[in-house]
Amino acid sequence: MKYRFQFRRYRLPFRAAVRTAHGVWAEREGVMVRLEDEKGATGLGEAAVMPWFGTETADAAEAACREIGEWVDEARLESVPVGLRCLRNAIGAARGEFHLREETKGTEQGGTGVKAKNLFLGVAALLPAGRGVLEAIGPKAEAGFRVFKWKVGVGDVADELSMLDDVCAALPSGAQLRLDANGAWDRRKAERWMERCAERPVEFVEQPVAADARGAVDLLLGLAGDFPTPIALDESLVSDGDAERWIGAGWPGIYVVKPSLFGDVTGVLEKLRKAKAQVVFSSALETAVGARAALRLAFGWGGEARALGFGVWPLFADARFDGPYVAPFLRIEDVERIDVEAVWNALS
User: Fold this and answer.
1) Rounded to whole angstroms, how far apart are CA atoms 318 and 339?
2) What would the 3-class secondary structure string for 281-304 be?
3) How far apart are CA 44 and CA 91, in angstroms?
4) CB contact at 8 A, 9 and 62
5) From the centroid of its chain, how far is CA 134?
6) Cβ pair 263, 293 in contact under 8 A
7) Is the whole model's pTM more than 0.90, yes or no?
8) Which of 237, 266, 261 shows the shortest CA–CA distance to 249?
9) What per-residue confidence (pLDDT) applies to 95?
């Protein structure tokens, strides 16, 4: 099959800067790709690069797109270097649109739907770092959210620890709290947090120490074995081979999967499925194009249905690039209604 290959680079400011242990993130960069076959059917994908997570840069993705050419076949698309994981992901998502139409042709979805094992999934509400967390919980709770994610590791550890009980007290009855440290702590700080989390409504602690810290694998395995609160891998799970390595290491905790960051995301998910791993699907703060592809995978996951880490919208200053309206639950219909062509056109 021959395709017309097009791409558009983007730089989109967020409505409000996102603060994490990696620093302040004010805008999203990436590359959008579009395939069109000889019959006029199209497929879109997004290279939602995150260099500090270990992916390629937007410059590298754009340069590779320029080399691909305008009219390409399947072999040319498959020849993109494996190191350009986000670009390979984007091309895979775009190609997947054509295969999906063939699989669902004549069905109730009209040839555009996805085979979903879950018709709806819960969503975790993203809370801001710092003192602003206490003001943000109330409106989210009133909207019906019962899973919350708090960015920690941003300020002084003692100040953040002192807020933990206030945050837990502000949660609605039966709610769960996820703590995301983005690898900000050393062993001592991580142990202080893990001790404090015991007997509190903390679902898990995400990436307490840096993935590239000395002895990180043994350190994470030790923390997971020493404390009752589960630990989730995030920055430690960014390349296609990471899942296999952690499965081989006997990781007992949770795998946070940002589908947009893997070159062969279906292969990664198949390894996790065979290992009966505990998986949480999470946003990489991509636009609606990348979000649709990622969420389709989440809805097709056959394992335990944990709340999605996609409670990020409204995210962009230009709302045309946002994914579905954030509610305590997301339906597969909400995902299928995303108009990716409108997002593409908004970049012109």
Assistant:
1) 15
2) EECCCCCHHHHHHHHHHHHHCCCC
3) 8
4) yes
5) 24
6) no
7) yes
8) 237
9) 96
156, 160, 161, 166: CA torsion to nearest 10: 160
Model pLDDT, residue 103: 75
Tokens standing for 23?
């620093």
Rounded Cα–Cα distance for residues 149 and 106 (Å): 41
140 in active site:
no
**d(C-alpha 104, C-alpha 300), whole Å:** 14
Q: How far apart are CA 270 and CA 277, in angstroms?
A: 10
Strands 120-127 vs 71-73: parallel, antiparallel or unpaired = unpaired
* Cα-based torsion angle of the residue sequence 206, 211, 216, 220 in order, rounded to the nearest 10 degrees: 10
Residue 116 sits at φ, ψ, to 5 deg, of -110, 135
Sketch out the chain's domains with CATH numbers: 2-104 (3.30.390.10), 120-337 (3.20.20.120)
Question: Cβ(211)–Cβ(181) under 8 Å?
Answer: no
Burial class (CB within 10 angstroms; exposed 0-12, middle 13-18, buried 19+) of 132: exposed
Q: Is there a catalytic annotation at residue 151?
A: yes
Contact 121, 297 (CB under 8 A): no
Burial of 110 (0-12, 13-18, 19+ CB in 10 A): exposed
Tell me, what amino acid is at 89? N
DSSP 8-state code for residue 52:
G
From the list 140, 149, 151, 189, the catalytic residue is 151
* Catalytically annotated residue among 140, 149, 189, 258: 258
Mean pLDDT in each 10-residue stretch from start to end of the chain (348 residues)? Answer: 96 93 91 96 97 94 97 96 97 94 60 74 94 95 97 93 97 97 96 96 97 95 98 95 97 98 97 97 97 97 92 96 94 96 96
Sign of CA dihedral 74, 77, 82, 88: negative
